[in-house]
Amino acid sequence: MLKIINLTCTRGDRSLFAGLNFDVKPGKLLHIRGQNGSGKTTLLRTLCGLFLQDTGEVQWGGKNIRSLQEEYRKQLLYLGHHNAIKDDLTGLENLHIEAQLSGEKISEKQCWQALEKIGLRGYEDLPTKALSQGQKRRVALSRLLLSKAKLWILDEPFTALDVSAVDFLQSIIRTHIENDGIVLLTTHQEVSLTSGQSQQLQLGN
Amino acid sequence: MFSTFLIILKRDLILAMRHKTDVLTTLFFFIIVVSLFPLGVGIEKSTLQQIAPGVVWIAALLASMLALERLFASDYADGTLEQMILTPQPLSILVLAKVLAHWLLTGLPLVLIAPLVGLQYHLPANSVVVMMLALLLGTPILSMIGAIGAALTLGLRGGGILISLLVLPLYIPVLIYGSGAIADSMLEGVTVRAYLQLLGAFLILALVFSPWATAAAVRISSE
Amino acid sequence: MSINWFKYASPASFYPLAGKSIPWFLVCAALLSLFGLYWGFFETPDVLTEQKEYYRIIFVHVPAAWLSMWLYIVLVAWAVIGLVFNTRLSYMLAAAIAPTGAMFTFLSLWTGAFWGKTSWGTWWDWDPRMTSQLILLFLYVGYMALQSAIDETRRADRASALLAIVGLVLIPIIFWSINCPDPNQCAALHQRSSLKTVEANILTAMLIMALAFWSYSFGVIFMRLRNLILERERNSKWIKPLVEETS
User: Fold this and answer.
1) What is the fold of A1-75+149-205?
2) Which of C86, C153, C234 lies nearest to residue A12, judging by beta carbons?
3) Mean of the pLDDT values across residues B11-36?
4) Cβ atoms within 10 Å of A89's Cβ, excluding its own
5) Which residues of C touch B (CB under 8 A)?
6) DSSP β-bridge partners for residue B162
7) pTM of the full predicted structure?
């Protein structure tokens, strides 16, 4: 469903990667590997449409994402380095706003449940600036429980998570894949999800 | 689409209410600047009446511009702006909601405090009314045009000064007609309708074109 | 024809073309300036109303003002092409034009001040055209400031392109508001003569000087462009032999 054709990206003066070709079908996970500075984040951002490539095309369902625009973004969930949550809002408020912006009809009750599921019971109503790094990351990740997007692009999603949260996240991702979703992620950590049969892409020389 | 607009508007207003100082600093800056001019220029009634139109507008320009830095800065820093770009909603609507919230917090207070300025500068009642109308029409234009500058300079050092360099020349038409309206309102037998109509026309033009330009600028800055 | 058009769209092929044309443009500029100034000094009346000999400064002032405005339009044209086609050379051209445009704007302001002083006794009097030139200078400076404030080339190019376009869209409104601050009585404010009433010889001299300034602009802009190309494309393969040549 996601197809990359002859993708070349330069950032500043450096050429990050050139002539990249790959595709990811529904029900598959792609683990993008590479050293720091090899262009992993830029690749993910290009696939989101945040960054414009030099040459080549990103296709979703056979159509260029530049022409799909909103249709593509409806299918996309991106979790970058930032948590994308407002410190002054509670976890609940953050999640509810984000869910509504994604175009889905999500009730506040569903948000409570999602936050509880991800291990933030009792913390849903606190301003997120009162939470620890790991807890903030959990708030950011709670989106995954409510999202109906098919394509998940996750940049270092396991950062700042403790062991139980890492396990939980892996199970969420596995469920998504089993339901024919697509996941692209980068991670430095050794997790069972990415060792074994997942697709791998190595960037950088 | 309208509901998304309201969501972002509500969000920004709630965030501002949890940090009330931001709102008040812009207002007080305006009051201070307006209060400084008589001390520097002269406190005679006729002098004050003469400089009032210009002073009010320059203070409004500067206050608007200083507040612009905060329009997108926090969302840019914590990644929420990026997520706004990625939602299926049109970015220009989200941006317009943010600008409206920004104006309600930094522009509208200036309109409401205008009678105080009228008092300080010995302006007749009808001029105060004209001042409020002109500010009501003009300050949203300042917010909208300024938003383009704020979006272009996201994350850059020299933020505030750079925004002023880019945006102040673009404020000139609002300055000229805004102050012209107040000045003419103090003359006998002159109607200020034409000024206000012009400002109204600019407001509509800004409403139509600036969200699109601001959204483009946000995308450029978020690469 | 379309093949030829895009042939020079890459920095690599435009670089030598620009290099060869620079001397021609500069020589042309020098010759045209001499010719224009000659015409201006010897073929035109000695006295224009009460302004005596000093009025001749308009042979620099007016063409400089024209160039400042035309160059801004050309800059925006290249910025638009860059944004639409995502071509690096277009952005480099826009960036190369800006300093020359700013220079001409400043020149028109400076010569305008001299003209004002000698003709009306004041260095500056906020008349609409001079004020508009001042604002144009601010727009150029803003463009250059934004370019230099952003480290990343791509973002710098695209951001300043957008800024220039917004500037161009607003310029008519800005100039109009300066020209016509009182919407109730606009007609009264046109005090200067328009081109039609200018004597033929004076107009000729101004046109020749305008051509000279255009030639100069091409030459200088291409020089700046070549430097920009060398700087930005320094990692490209075709640059290496050039660098080895000069070192």
Assistant:
1) Rossmann fold (3.40.50)
2) C153
3) 89
4) 21
5) 135, 138-139, 141-142, 145-146, 149-150, 152, 154-155, 158-159, 162-163, 166-167, 169-170, 173-174, 176-178, 181-184
6) none
7) 0.90
